[in-house]
Design brief:
Helix content: 55-70%
Distance between the termini: 79 Å
Mean pLDDT: 91
Largest sheet: 5 strands, mixed
Strand order of the largest sheet: 4-3-5-7-6
Number of strands: 7
Length: 484
């Protein structure tokens, strides 16, 4: 099925514009996005480019700084907004799209490359990640660069691919850590053992110079981080990379809680993340054919180094996380470019009109859903778990009066208040209640809004109700006595 360059350009422009529009409208929804956005905001405000800070005085050892560097720089350039903090992820995923296109063109020709690019752009998780404040897009960029470079370097020994492999590893090390090395090796090593072609592919890379380049790019930050905040290595390497993996209920997380899931859940995440294309790829691959039985097609595919490479790349990440119950669905993002490449090849071979129409229709749901969610955020913001509007309401009224969250303070409250929203426990509430002539604002769980200040002798004025909290203006008892 022929896809013209004009069709590719128009399709990508519409898809990427839809993502830009949606990410400008959507507020940061708890928990992950505002947590990372707040870390980036602190980096931009403090000018500390060595240590990401979870909050003032608490270093964030959970992730390396590459994503935070990019987000903080974007804040410095474009100001503090959802669009500015999300823009680096959009640009990074644009880089992944370029690598998918370059790889598809080199392997299977321009038509396959065009289809692979559109397929990846409209896959659920890549589309969502392109406008989200996460570290996973940066890992996906690094791993995609390494995997594409490793495959192409023997036949195309340009420095772009020969050294790109090591640059990709450095990006992965600065985005997620040693996990990048494990995932790349987990795909490439079994593939080389299967085809017995290790010598050809290993000799195509400049191991001495490339390794030196990788270490030069990544190692200085690791050393600086440990020197500045001792204990980083112990927590990040042992805690984040070992204990988090082997212990589904790991209680050592300093910044949240473990994401305990049943073993093997990552495969359901893989299917969800690839919608609607992963199921289409599996269906087209396994669909019965009169003159090509499945067993014969499998045998042929297993002898094809390119097909097995894409398969190993697609399966290595979910296979690795099968052994862990502490996972998020975003972990499968680096495994999705090969799904797009394999599906793009199949799509380029379609000849009839019906598959063409089905493929065009399959590209619509994910961008359309994003636009709908963005529009919903504009029309009915209280439907989302975010305190953006609550903080804005408080800021419009409070002047220099303090704002406190009682019992819990979501990350979105910290970000949108620029760190000014305080946290007070229910037991310590008496210590912050206003004295004569004073006013404070309290955000209270809305199902407890009436009971928290039931005995307060002053004036309590409801101001705003979000999905989770009620904002109350609390004046002193003296102010009540002075009222006419």
């Amino acid at each position: 099925m022929r896809l013209t360059s004009r069709g590719l350009l128009l399709g990508l422009t519409a898809i990427l514009a839809a993502r830009l529009f949606a990410m400008a409208l959507m507020p940061f929804v708890d928990t992950s996005e505002p947590r990372y956005a707040e870390i980036a905001r602190l980096m931009a405000a403090s000018g500390d480019w060595t240590t990401p800070w979870f909050e003032p005085g608490v270093p964030f050892w959970g992730k390396p700084p590459l994503a935070f560097w990019a987000q903080a720089l974007s804040i410095r350039l474009f100001g503090l907004s959802e669009f500015a903090v999300r823009l680096p992820s959009w640009l990074v995923m644009l880089g992944v799209l370029a690598l998918v296109h370059a790889c598809g063109r080199r392997l299977h020709g321009e038509q396959a490359a065009r289809w692979a690019t559109l397929i990846f752009a409209t896959m659920l998780l890549p589309f969502a990640s392109a406008g989200a404040v996460l570290t996973d897009p940066f890992l996906a960029l690094g791993m995609t660069l390494s995997m594409v470079s490793f495959l192409l370097a023997p036949a195309d020994p340009r420095p772009l691919w020969r050294y790109g492999f090591f640059v990709g590893l450095a990006i992965g090390l600065l985005a997620k850590g040693p996990l990048a090395l494990v995932l790349v090796a987990g795909a490439a090593v079994p593939w080389m053992l299967w085809h017995r072609n290790a010598r050809t592919y290993l000799r195509a890379l400049p191991w001495a110079g490339g390794t030196a380049l990788m270490l030069m790019l990544a190692l200085p930050w690791y050393i600086a981080a440990e020197i500045k905040t001792p204990g980083f290595f112990q927590y990040f390497i042992v805690g984040e990379h070992i204990l988090r993996f082997v212990d589904p209920g790991w209680e050592g997380d300093r910044y949240g809680s473990a994401h305990q899931r049943p073993y093997g859940s990552i495969w359901l995440d893989w299917l969800l993340a690839t919608l609607p294309w992963g199921a289409a790829w599996l269906g087209m691959t396994l669909w019965p054919r009169k003159h090509a039985p499945l067993r014969q097609r499998v045998a042929t595919a297993m002898r094809d180094p390119v097909q097995t490479y894409l398969l190993a790349w697609a399966l290595a990440t979910p296979a690795f996380f099968t052994l862990s119950g502490n996972i998020l669905w975003t972990y499968v993002l680096p495994a999705l470019p090969p799904v797009a490449l394999a599906t793009g090849l199949l799509a380029s071979r379609w000849q009839s009109v019906r598959p063409r129409r089905l493929a065009a229709a399959a590209m619509l749901p994910v961008p359309a859903a994003a636009l709908a969610l963005g529009a919903l955020a504009w029309v009915e913001p209280t439907i989302y778990k975010t305190e953006k509007q609550l903080v804005q309401q408080a800021d419009a009224m409070r002047g220099n009066d303090p704002l406190y969250f009682v019992g819990s303070r979501p990350f979105s409250a910290r970000y949108y208040s620029r760190g000014e929203a305080g946290l007070v426990s229910r037991q310590a509430l008496d210590g912050v209640l206003p004295k004569a002539g004073q006013t404070i604002f309290l955000a209270v769980a809305k199902n407890r809004a009436t009971e928290v200040l039931a005995a307060w002798p002053g004036i309590v004025t409801p101001v705003y109700v979000s999905r989770r909290y009620a904002l109350l203006k609390v004046d002193s008892a003296a102010a009540k006595g002075a009222a006419p």
